[in-house]
User: Which sequence fits this backbone?
């Protein structure tokens, strides 16, 4: 194996920086700690994203529970029950829309605006089958949030593993630098 000459431009590039006067091991440790800090920030962002997904899943499940509690009392496919289902949907329309639910099948029939706040006053009458499709959509959205969180957990574990690896590497470099300094001090 051959070793080429060290370029003086590389050595001169260190002068005037925070690395000037440091050993190679200490420079490596500083770089590893900086990369580790970046991985930690990425992990913290993943945790924040996961919390938001978890909160959305809870909100969707809560919406679904409240809707089902009211819709459970309307079981027949008579015109009066279909109309009641539409009224129940209207009650939850804006909340569902705010959670990102696809509203195309809800078909609002009445809208009022008071002090700049839009309220849905009615939705098209719905059969029991149409209601099952709507509630199923909301349930799938909540399940997708939970599934996405499982995927995010794998990514979070990867970031934390990388963080631990870089911090461990930095610690090893610092130990090596200390051993070298102790060896030089003994001589």
Assistant:
């Amino acid at each position: 194996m051959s070793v080429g000459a060290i370029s003086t431009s590389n050595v001169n590039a260190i002068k005037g920086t925070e690395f000037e006067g440091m050993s190679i091991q200490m420079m490596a440790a500083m770089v590893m700690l900086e990369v580790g800090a970046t991985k930690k920030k990425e992990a913290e962002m993943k945790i924040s994203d996961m919390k938001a997904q978890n909160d959305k899943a809870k909100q969707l499940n809560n919406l679904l529970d409240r809707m089902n509690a009211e819709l459970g009392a309307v079981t027949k496919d008579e015109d009066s029950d279909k109309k009641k289902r539409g009224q129940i949907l209207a009650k939850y329309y804006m909340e569902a829309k705010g959670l990102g639910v696809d509203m195309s099948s809800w078909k609002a029939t009445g809208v009022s605006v008071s002090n700049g706040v839009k309220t849905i006053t009615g939705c098209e009458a719905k059969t029991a089958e149409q209601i099952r499709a709507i509630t199923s959509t909301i349930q799938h959205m909540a399940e997708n949030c939970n599934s996405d969180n499982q995927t995010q957990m794998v990514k979070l574990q990867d970031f934390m593993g990388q963080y631990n690896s870089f911090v461990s590497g930095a610690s090893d470099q610092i130990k090596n630098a200390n051993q070298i300094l102790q060896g030089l001090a003994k001589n």
About this structure: The chain is about 70% helix and 5% strand. The longest helix spans residues 128-186. Residues 24-186 form one domain.
